[in-house]
Design goal:
The chain is an all-alpha fold. The chain has a domain of 136 residues: Fic-like fold. Helices cover 60% and strands 2% of the residues. It is built from 7 helices and 2 strands; from the N terminus they run H-H-E-E-H-H-H-H-H. A two-stranded antiparallel sheet has the order 1-2. Helix 4 packs antiparallel against helix 5. The longest helix is centred in the last third of the chain and has 22 residues. The radius of gyration is 21 Å and the shape is globular. The two termini are 38 Å apart.
Length: 196
């Protein structure tokens, strides 16, 4: 197709959408939510294909932080999934601990070329929601504390990271309860609403 043909097709689709306006607000909200979910999901690069080159990073101190090598990644991800299945079957650990630990271990491997933090948070929330909890949103305002807690976990102190996730989970649960009671939840935390 030529550029002119592509633009004509785009214009045709826009005209078809415009002819359906006004769109029911509930329907439009549902559509926009779908877009947000798709955008978040598809912002990952080649999900399902592990990294093919090292993705080490330089820390604030200037040191190089080495994640798992591309060669180590499949085995480490296999071990992580075995750990998760075993912990889920045993049911001894609280879902918050399982989800936060899974998040940390996933980030420590850094299995993809890009989007590892977003995927770790998505999977953490999936674990929480599968066990009846609401999702945790790590807000941009918490980025420094989030990164510091991850550094503490690297030093063997996972508790700080679990506590950080717990605080955000409590916030989400309180917000959820306000919404269930019919209280206004719009504008709550707007200064911190943008997530990592």
């Amino acid at each position: 197709m030529t550029l002119r043909e592509i633009l004509a097709e785009v214009d045709d689709l826009k005209n078809r959408i415009d002819s359906l306006r006004p769109i029911d607000p509930a329907q439009e909200q549902r559509i926009m939510q779908k877009f947000r979910l798709d955008w978040n999901f598809h912002s990952q690069v080649k999900i399902g294909q592990y990294k093919t080159t090292p993705n080490s990073v330089k820390t604030n101190t200037g040191a190089i932080y080495y994640y798992a090598s591309p060669e180590e990644t499949p085995a480490l991800m296999g071990e992580l999934m075995q750990w998760f299945r075993a912990e889920s079957e045993k049911g001894d650990l609280h879902p918050l601990i399982v989800s936060a630990t899974f998040h940390y271990r996933f980030v420590r491997i850094h299995p993809f070329d890009d989007g590892n933090g977003r995927m770790a948070r998505l999977l953490m929330n999936l674990i929480l929601m599968q066990t009846g909890y609401v999702p945790v949103i790590i807000k941009l305002a918490s980025k420094g504390a989030y990164l510091f807690a991850l550094e503490q976990a690297d030093a063997g102190e996972l508790e700080d990271f679990i506590v950080l996730v717990e605080g955000e989970l409590i916030y989400s649960m309180e917000l959820y309860l306000r919404g269930v009671r019919g209280e206004d939840i719009e504008g709550i935390g707007d200064l911190n609403r943008y997530s990592l």
